[in-house]
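It is worth pausing here to work through a concrete case rather than discussing structure prediction in the abstract. The textbook approach is simple: state the sequence, then state the predicted structure, then interpret. We follow exactly that order.
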Amino acid sequence: MVITFSVILLGLIALVPPLQRNKFFILNSALIIGLAYWIEGYWFRTSVFSYKTLLLFVVFQLVTINFTTFMAYWADKRAARKGAWRVSENNLHTLEFMGGWIGAFAAQKIFRHKIAKKSYQNMYKLMIVMEFAAVYFILKFLHLI
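Step two, the predicted structure:
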């Protein structure tokens, strides 16, 4: 499981340049690999690239990316209050597209951050639509729908 998750995540980082500069996605990748190592060591093992392993990856990705996106919003809000370097909007939108739009929505409501900026909200909504479109095309390609 650790090998499978590492190959997928490192492959994504190698192939998608915006992910290479996104420290929150790299943190997310480390969380997923750490969770896989912990679960594989204590609970059960699965074979490399099996159906069960890929489903676990999807679950781990959705949980950790939402947590990571929430933390990125928190860090950006904190930096905004202190006048420090901010998290770029591109990094936030990348996290949203990778599945973290629920964490982004929660953070926007809790921290009241990025809710008044119309251009940001429009791009946020576009990221949700693009993610659903990407999932649809992947499922269609795999003949699952």
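Step three, interpretation. The two ends are 26 Å apart (CA to CA). The chain has a mean pLDDT of 88.
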